[in-house]
Amino acid sequence: MSEENNKSVVEKVSRPHYQINLTRELKYQNEYTLALDGEYKHIAFNEERAPFNKGQWRSLVFSADEQRPLDLEVGTGNGTHFKHHALKYPERLLVGFELKYKPLIQTIRRTVVAGAKNACVARVHAFNLEHLFAPGELNDVYIHFPDPWVSPRKPKNRFVQTRNLDLLWDLQRPGAKLEFKTDSREYFLWSMEQIRESKYKIEFETLDLHKSPIAAENFETAFEKIFLRQGIEINFVRLRR
């Protein structure tokens, strides 16, 4: 693909909602930016390369057939849940989104070292979902502890909102689930208003996950452990497509 066409794709990915810095234009590189386009290039995609996988994540990245489940984690953090999911469900494929370089590389490195061969990550802004996946390409989606945007109050920046719920509905396959966890009660209650107006079916919701009937099946993320030590209740909802 020509440089001009490549630039066009990048603009389509970054400009609809948030323009992000291009890795190749960084003035200073470090071990994490270099690893993204070096050691882990085949399973860690920068903001320019990721869009070329749209509609072809299974075949291009994993050489898998179209019936194999493809899950997405929005905001991997340092990758503890990402690794857990990849190892627990080797029959499923997993894509992780993260904007910051260090956690992005920590996520894929931790997962690969543990022996998983069914996972990849991409440095993208989550609000540009429609440029990364084709309708019906995704199965389950996990959203764990995204930025709550409560100070200053900027709810338009919250990921779990009407616009993204509508997008995810189109991108997911029938019967797929969506899980959302947050320590922010304000964010959760605000998002639940959006969710109740969406096409999703609410399968389970709670304001205190760790005192709920599904507590035993929950995997505690790194952030979650911190919040629990502080006595903060974890809000959770599971939706069904």
Strand order of the largest sheet: 1-4-3-2-5-6-8-7
Determine the mean pLDDT.
Answer: 92
Full CATH superfamily name: Vaccinia Virus protein VP39
First-residue to last-residue Cα separation: 36 Å
Based on the coordinates given, report the CATH architecture. 3-Layer(aba) Sandwich
Helicity, in percent? 25-40%
CATH topology: Rossmann fold
Low-pLDDT ranges: 1-16
Tally of DSSP helical segments: 8
Taken as a percent bin, the fraction of beta residues is 15-25%
Structural class of the helix and strand makeup? alpha/beta
Summed up, the domain count is 1
Instruction: Give the helices and strands as they follow along the chain.
Output: HHEHEHEHEEHEHEHE
Number of strands: 8
CATH class: Alpha Beta
Protein described:
- By secondary structure, this protein is an alpha/beta fold.
- It has one domain (3-240): Vaccinia Virus protein VP39 (Rossmann fold, 3-Layer(aba) Sandwich).
- Helix content is 32%, strand content 16%.
- An eight-stranded mixed sheet has the order 1-4-3-2-5-6-8-7, with helices on both faces.
- α5 (101-113) links the parallel β3 (93-97) and β4 (119-122).
- α4 runs parallel beside α5.
- The longest helix has 13 residues, at 101-113.
- It is globular and about 45 Å long.
- Residues 1-16 have low confidence and may be disordered.
Describe the structure using short key phrases:
16% strand; 241 residues; eight-stranded mixed β-sheet; alpha/beta; Rossmann fold
Q: What order do the helices and strands come in, and which of them pair?
A:
Elements: H1 3-14, H2 31-36, E1 44-45, H3 57-62, E2 70-74, H4 80-88, E3 93-97, H5 101-113, E4 119-122, E5 141-144, H6 162-171, E6 177-182, H7 185-196, E7 201-206, H8 222-229, E8 235-240
Parallel strand pairs: 1-4, 2-3, 2-5, 3-4, 5-6
Antiparallel strand pairs: 6-8, 7-8
